[in-house]
Design goal:
Elements lengths: L9 E2 L38 H15 L4 E2 L9 H10 L13 H5 L2 H14 L8 E6 L5 E6 L6
Antiparallel strand pairs: 1-2, 3-4
Length: 154
């Protein structure tokens, strides 16, 4: 790594995505057009659209150099702010998962839970709980698979 929130080199996927993220397509307008200097390369963790800006920058880097390799993006996953947004995006009224954890009970100690999850992700100690699979009968006699996930991992 070259510094805080800096990636070494990037990896180019062998196959292009079916749909371009953000609807702009691969040849879309530069998200940082008009900006200059190092500030345009740093993700702003406080903004709500840092993910889209980050994806746009990755897309631009790959377009500039088709041989570029993407290999240091994992640190974006365990950022506490990103985990918070993921938590807030889950359904509040959903039933508890196989871990018996509800949205409300996880949120009672949200900051400590998110810090703990971030630390476990960073050191590679996080293991997602398997999704419980059950088959529900349909009126026509066929079975419909249903997956029951866990809110928090071990």
């Amino acid at each position: 790594m070259n510094g805080f929130r800096k990636s070494d080199r990037v990896i180019v996927p062998r196959n292009s995505p079916n749909k371009a993220l953000g609807g702009g397509g691969e040849g879309g307008k530069d998200a940082n057009q008009g900006e200059s200097g190092p500030k345009s390369r740093v993700l702003n963790a406080e903004s709500g659209d840092d993910t889209q800006k980050g994806l746009a920058r990755i897309r631009q880097a790959v377009e500039r150099d088709k041989g570029t390799r993407l290999n240091a993006l994992y640190h974006h996953i365990y950022a506490v702010e990103r985990l918070r947004r993921a938590y807030l995006a889950t359904r509040k009224q959903a039933a508890a998962g196989i871990d018996a954890e509800t949205w409300q009970s996880y949120g009672e100690n949200l900051e400590s839970n998110l810090r703990d999850l971030s630390e476990r992700l960073a050191r590679g100690a996080y293991h997602a709980k398997p999704v419980r699979r059950v088959q529900i009968p349909k009126p026509d006699g066929r079975m419909r698979p249903l997956g029951i996930p866990a809110l928090a991992g071990c």
